[in-house]
Write a sequence for this structure.
């Protein structure tokens, strides 16, 4: 967006800016919708942490399936850690990821409740994951 500020008016640049803004709005809406679908809003996470001390989401279509292959579990863990490294809001060093049979456990600390949601969605949307358990806390 900084590129478009202070530039002389140009129809192609104006169109590109409008598409960029529209795309960003669509991505934000999709992310918020996904968080709502999974019940991973800050209020839901706070309530669940207070009630049980952890946050769990299961994929219903994968309940009967389990990944027994240790290589697959290592790949899942590596994929999630890679996604966390790419996200500036999440510290891959502060979040431990453990995968057993497709069940991912997240432990450690984040800077906000919203980042707990973000970490859970990153893990949940990783191929091969059947369940996500979080004991993440806000520091």
């Amino acid at each position: 967006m900084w590129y478009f500020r202070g530039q002389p008016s140009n129809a192609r640049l104006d169109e590109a800016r409008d598409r960029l803004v529209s795309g960003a709005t669509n991505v934000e809406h999709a992310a918020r919708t996904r968080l709502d679908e999974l019940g991973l809003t800050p209020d839901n996470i706070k309530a669940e942490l207070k009630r049980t001390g952890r946050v769990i989401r299961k994929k219903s279509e994968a309940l009967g399936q389990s990944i027994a292959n240790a290589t697959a579990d290592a790949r899942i863990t590596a994929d999630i850690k890679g996604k966390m490294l790419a996200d500036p809001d999440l510290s891959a060093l502060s979040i431990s990821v453990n995968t057993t049979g497709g069940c991912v456990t997240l432990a450690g600390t984040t800077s906000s409740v919203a980042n707990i949601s973000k970490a859970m969605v990153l893990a949940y949307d990783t191929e091969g994951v059947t369940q996500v358990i979080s004991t993440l806390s806000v520091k």
About this structure: Helices lie at 11-37, 42-52, 70-86, 113-124. The mean pLDDT is 84. The CA atoms of residues 27 and 33 lie 10 Å apart. Residues 40-138 form one domain.
